Amino acid sequence: MDERKTVVVTGFEPFGEHTVNASWVAVQELERLGLHQDVDLHVAEVPVEYQAVQNLLPSLWNKYHPQLVVHVGVSGMATTVTLEKCGHNHGYKRLDNCSFCPESQCCVEGGPDCIHSVIDMDSVCKRVNASGLGVTVSVSKDAGRYLCDYTYYSSLHLSQGRAAFVHVPPLGRPYSAQDLARALRAIILEMLELLDQNKEKHHCQHSQ
């Protein structure tokens, strides 16, 4: 890596049947593991509340000015570590931990229906699966229209696409917190590598 980078990684608090949220446990494990000596890693636990997300995300961007923000959430249906390609603006009908739901049922009024991450998730998926990590990674286009999707869209909107979302399965189904942390580390390092390459390509095109 060329210069120091700042990465913010978030997990969610418990909700519903997830009395222990695998995403936050995995993120705390990642914090212990560290990313790379040239990467400053900051972690935060996100409340499962629409209004709290609206306040928290801008404050994380303003405080750390990260190169990348990666949100991690748990999916009871997931059996792999899943990279989400995009966030959706509409369809938020489920009540959050405060029994609240946005009246407009959308993240950003007047915003585009769908925002894609600038990171090529297929490429990250291929690279991590080829690295012999022992954790299977897959790709998805639907983050579920709840707080995960809501957080992802809001973050993509704030960052012009410099955000990512990773769904993890519940702990022990089949991976441990340590397995998930190793997978997150490999995924985030690949993402940073791709962002670097994109930046170089950008410079090359400008300098011709």
UniProtKB/TrEMBL annotation:
Keywords (A to Z) from UniProt: Cytoplasm, Hydrolase, Protease, Thiol protease
Entry keyword Protease: yes
Active site: 84, 148
CC terms in the record's Gene Ontology section: cytosol
Top EC group: hydrolase
Keyword Protease: yes
EC code: 3.4.19.3
Catalytic activity, reaction form: Release of an N-terminal pyroglutamyl group from a polypeptide, the second amino acid generally not being Pro
Entry's localization field: Cytoplasm
GO biological process: proteolysis
GO terms, molecular function: pyroglutamyl-peptidase activity
Family label: Belongs to the peptidase C15 family.
Quaternary structure, from the entry: Monomer.
Function statement: Removes 5-oxoproline from various penultimate amino acid residues except L-proline.
Protein name: Pyroglutamyl-peptidase I
Taxon lineage: Eukaryota, Metazoa, Chordata, Craniata, Vertebrata
